[in-house]
Amino acid sequence: MGPAPPDSTPLLPRPFRVMRVRRELRDVWTLELEASDGAGPVRFRPGQFTMVYVFGIGEVPISICGDPAKPDVLVHTVRAVGTVTQAVCAARKDDILGVRGPYGEGWPVEAALGRDVVIMAGGLGLAPLRSLVRAVVARRGAFGRVVLLIGARTPAGLLFSRELAHWRARFDLEVRATVDAGDPGWNGEVGVITALLPRATFDPATTTAFICGPEVMMRFAAADLVDCGVPPELVFLSLERNMKCAVGVCGHCQFGPAFVCKDGPVFSYQRIETSLRIREV
Amino acid sequence: METIDDLLSRHPFFKGLKPEYLVLIAGCGRNVHFDADAYLLREGGTADRFFAIRGGSVAVETYVPSRGPVTLQTVGEGEILGWSWLFPPYVCQFDARARAEVRATSFDGACLRSKCDADPALGYELMKRLARLVSSRLEAARRQLLDVYGPGPTR
Asked: In sequence order, which ranges of chain B are alpha helices (DSSP H)?
């Protein structure tokens, strides 16, 4: 009997082999994984996540940041901040990790068809948006103007520098990066990411926006986008919560009336604006 | 050839101003150009002007011993640089350095203040716009202080 389809055993991790590990920043690594159980690749939509299990240590939700057109390679970019993520980042070629998923509602790319697109990434938030950028670039003609705004603490905190250079070189993408604090070698913008909005070229009324980053950054960014005329139902944010089961059963990631793992992690600002302002949520 | 009031009418800061106000304001302005690394303003210098940036990018800097010049903020096309000309003692608080070639309209602060004194309606309109600018810069500085990209949850 062959391996069970992943969705029939939602809590059972599948074994994935680490094929490549690349250090992105001082404490951030990108891992490329391939299924080693013969059950096929993880077909995902931009913005979805998987649960990555380091055997004997624990499991964490991690956004998929690879190319949706190349599902054979499961790509995760991870910051080593706790016991489990440190163990994930310590994995080396040929190690085996457990993977469940993909889970959740991803970025609604179809809501941006024919419209201008503003993508705002703060810090590690570029990782969950990378799949979206690739999906948009792959169908570039289906969208209006495409603006990618990136914020980081320092120049050393900017992710995917090679890919950024590639995107910047395109004439059909407007890419702007800013840091909260520059250094002598930095020739880009200095200031908060929201300060980039008035400098970017897009028509707010016909724009769909996608934001990922620290929650407070997303709150400010979404409010500024709506203030300048982007419809709140077309501003999308990816939330991070303490996801455990990933299938909407355990309740660890409850966010007001929603479960982030099942109903999110991507929500429209219109849906969650009130909850975002409730401190207890 | 475009006049300064033509250029101002397209600048976001002046957008929507009555044409007669644009002419009055333009009377205090002149178009200027700075090469990369040239200083538009110097910390401690007389704050006798401000700039409507029309192209390029300016770093607002201060000098920190042992660190050298530190960029606090960058100001670019469509934005305004400088408000120390509004209040005594009219002294610049920071350096402003062109990061690349800059095109701007420079306004004589004393000229504009006297026109605002003579026409309170113009003064009120201009001060509302400047207050919004100062408020948005203050809000941005507060957001910067939050250090939102600092360490997050540990898992």
From this structure: 4-10, 19-26, 109-118, 120-145
